[in-house]
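hiii so um. not sure if this is the right channel but i have a protein structure encoded as tokens and i wanna go backwards to a sequence. like what aa goes where. can anyone help
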């Protein structure tokens, strides 16, 4: 009987010890906070993973995600500075940076946090878009607009112990009834730019043609000048040769004789072999043997 009672007591003690051990330890996974609460009051925040200890039955553990969370915000209408309507579709990357503040303000409920994030991002988006014209918004799309919205929204959301890492615009589009007019204007602007480039190119081409024509005219005039000079020199040499040929009676007679032979050769080259000569001509005297 005593043995049975001792065995029962041992089992009870082991069970109690196991319960106490289970109630005294807890684990913290990676990318997670553990808020240790005692009688509802937060006494410690643990942000390092591993096996941890707490007071059994007195303290409890509330776990909060420390990971980056993606929240897709519903699309909303915004009005630009020049009174143009646009449709913005955003998503947000956010995380908890102050677990104590997050618990105190939102009781660590992510749905409440995303409600506050949505309101802060919409207000920031509305404020920033309304301060810019449609053309300025289109030009600023990308990192600049993302930074402006993220910084402005964080100023409102930090009181909840959370941080918006990035508020990114997935799509910033026009309402269907405005698209055609805007696209037509964009096409017209680009056609004007293209026409400007074309006009500039034609002006440069005409300048090149004018410069080339002027250079060609200068080269042609110079060539004609050199040709005239060469021709003049040739004629001068020719006249000098003639003068040399006629500077005595004997040379003049010989030159006339050669010219007569050349003329006779030219006359006899064709099919007609009959020539009519003056009896006193040099050729007649030559042919009759009266050259002397």
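sure thing!! here u go:
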């Amino acid at each position: 009987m005593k043995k049975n009672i001792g065995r029962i007591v041992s089992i009870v003690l082991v069970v109690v010890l196991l319960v106490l051990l289970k109630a005294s330890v807890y684990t913290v996974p990676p990318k997670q906070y553990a808020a240790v609460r005692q009688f509802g009051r937060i006494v410690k925040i643990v942000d390092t993973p591993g096996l941890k200890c707490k007071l059994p039955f007195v303290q409890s553990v509330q776990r909060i995600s420390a990971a980056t969370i993606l929240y897709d915000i519903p699309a909303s209408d915004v009005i630009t500075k020049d009174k143009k309507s646009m449709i913005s579709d955003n998503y947000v990357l956010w995380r908890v940076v102050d677990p104590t503040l997050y618990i105190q303000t939102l009781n660590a409920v992510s749905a409440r946090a995303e409600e506050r994030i949505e309101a802060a991002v919409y207000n920031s988006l509305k404020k920033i878009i309304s301060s810019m014209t449609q053309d300025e918004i289109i030009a600023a799309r990308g990192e600049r607009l993302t930074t402006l919205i993220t910084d402005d929204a964080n100023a409102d959301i930090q009181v909840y112990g959370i941080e918006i890492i990035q508020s990114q615009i997935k799509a910033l589009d026009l309402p269907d009834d405005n698209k055609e007019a805007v696209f037509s204007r964009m096409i017209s602007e680009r056609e004007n730019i293209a026409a400007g480039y074309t006009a500039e190119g034609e002006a440069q081409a005409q300048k090149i043609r004018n410069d080339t024509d002027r250079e060609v005219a200068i080269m042609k005039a110079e060539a004609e000048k050199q040709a005239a000079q060469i021709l003049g020199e040739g004629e001068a040499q020719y006249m000098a040769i003639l003068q040399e040929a006629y500077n005595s009676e004997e040379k003049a007679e010989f030159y006339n004789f050669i010219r007569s032979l050349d003329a006779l050769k030219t006359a006899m080259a064709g099919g007609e072999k009959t020539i009519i000569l003056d009896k006193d001509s040099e050729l007649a005297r030559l042919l009759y043997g009266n050259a002397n």
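oh and Residues 176-245 form the longest helix (70 residues).
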